[in-house]
Amino acid sequence: MNNKTYSLLWNARQLSTLVPRSRFLRIYPLRFCRPEVVHSKWNSRNCLLNGFGEGLQPSVRYLFQGVLKPVDGCTQTKGLSCAAVFKLDRVLCPRRLSSDSEHFLASDGASDHDLMKINSHHASSEDVLTKKMRPTPVNHKKLVQECNSLSDVLDTFSKAPTFPSSSYFLAMWTIAKRISEDKRRFEIQLMFSHSAFSQLCEQMIRETQIMHYDHLLFSLNAIMKLGVPQNTLMVQTLLRVAQERINECDERCLSILSTVLETLEPCMNVNALRAGLRILVDQQVWKIEQIFTLQTVMKCIGKDTPPALKKKLEMKALKELDKFSVLNSQHMFEVLAAMDHRSVVLLNECSKMVIDNIHGCPYKVLISILQSCRDLRYQNEDLFKSIADYVATTFEIWTVKQVTFFLMLFENLGFRPPGLMDKLMKKVVEDPDSLNIKNIVSILYVYSSLNHAHKDQNREFLEAMASAVTVHLHHISSENLLSIVYSFCLMNYFPLTLVNQLIKKNIINELLTSGDTEKNIHKLHVLNSCLKLDGSAYSKPVQIPLPQLPLPPSHPNDKVAEVLSHLLEGEGRFSRNVQLPHNYHIDFEIRMDNNRTKVFSFSDVDATSGTNMQRSIPGS
């Protein structure tokens, strides 16, 4: 190659390094980024008029003005379309763009030795110039160390906007987590009113296609935590790009994406992203190595997940049981409840580990386990007894409110922990003034529902509870008063002061006209019957004028009757609405032999006179 050609090529190389080849780069061939969302009325003439000296300003004026304006229906607004061009300065490029002049050199007939020499000379010169021109990417950890508030982070950004913008959002959320709730709300208000916040949002939208996928998801999580509305253009753009690039999701990104989706409200983009996550999980479930990632994904996919995918995730968890830590076993209850998937085998194995490591288990974890068991309709008496015994053993470290909450959950599960209930009774007898109305209502409801009575302190307990109610008698609502007296009556205790207050005409009228009237009427009927039968403290029966209870539907079990007719091959083999002595009533009666192998017809004379016949109630 002659010197003139070499000089011409060298000058062209230097010019391409110092001046961008074009203000707008088509970067699809280099796989640098995907189409950017731009305005449908974009005019290329404006690019020439704007010139080349605007640094990192938007390529289309007013394109991202209003990035925080709501997007109707959580979807992109009208007038947005995909363009094959993307404005990008070299400083935003996370990796170096390849040269396109090599094709020209190769076609010019240059030898391989000359080509390597020229490229080496050019590369060294370009590296020196690039290092001088390209700023160092900002690190969010460094920002957290240098800044004390969200406004400080935005001030740093406004002085020298640097790639990636995700670092600024991560830094702001990290700072926000360290401060109190009141100060956080104030700082977030200042953040929204800061002049540089809109500029930061614009840069985030421009960078969505070129930043790493995990940075994109971390940014989305930080933005939502900072209180940016979900229906804004920036959030919806991040959701849309997360959909488009979901194939870049590795195990770490799966965990981040699952965490983000838990905080988002349903909308079109969220639903599409969640559906994409389910497809991805279905394909990669056997490749997941971390138990934390597996549980995070299981918790995120939701209750409406196809049963086949739930079963596959269950099998994966069972396969990894030997890797479960104590925390993993404790967390699995909540995970399965979030999926609405009752895996008895998995719950039994996790229960064993929870029982073996119950000491030191935090309050929130124990409550979460019991709530999950209730939601999953999972009964494990050994687990419940272990939790109740642990709470009773460490009774002094718990407040009355916490113990009451434990007992409420045990009552929901149909489990009576006598040791724990005796401990609370002793606490109430010693210090009844420490109870508030909410605690009193809950405690009486649990003890009457579980029919618990202490051998020695039962009377003292009831009197202490009654005295605690009397203190708040003039401030208690009518419904709470009814609930308290109703519970006392079920425990065969009739406090005179409370009953006289309840049966006042204005209290009764309020109960019959407000709140859950049907439930109130039922309780008043029970109370009236108890006072007539057991109220020995009253010289004459108390008459409370009450409306009749609503009659049950005339045919509430038509579907059951239809099924029984199909199973027993005819309606003559069972009887409906059978009235028994002492006001007992059953819906269906079937006559069978003692071994329950043969069904007799009600019209069969031999069956009615047989001695080997017994009554059977469906479901018993």
TrEMBL record:
One of its GO terms (molecular function) is kinase activity. It comes from the Eukaryota. The gene is Fastkd2. It holds the Pfam family FAST_1. Coiled coil: none annotated. InterPro entries: FAST_kinase (IPR050870), FAST_Leu-rich (IPR010622). It comes from Mesocricetus auratus. Residues 440-512 form the FAST kinase leucine-rich domain. This is FAST kinase domain-containing protein 2, mitochondrial isoform X2.
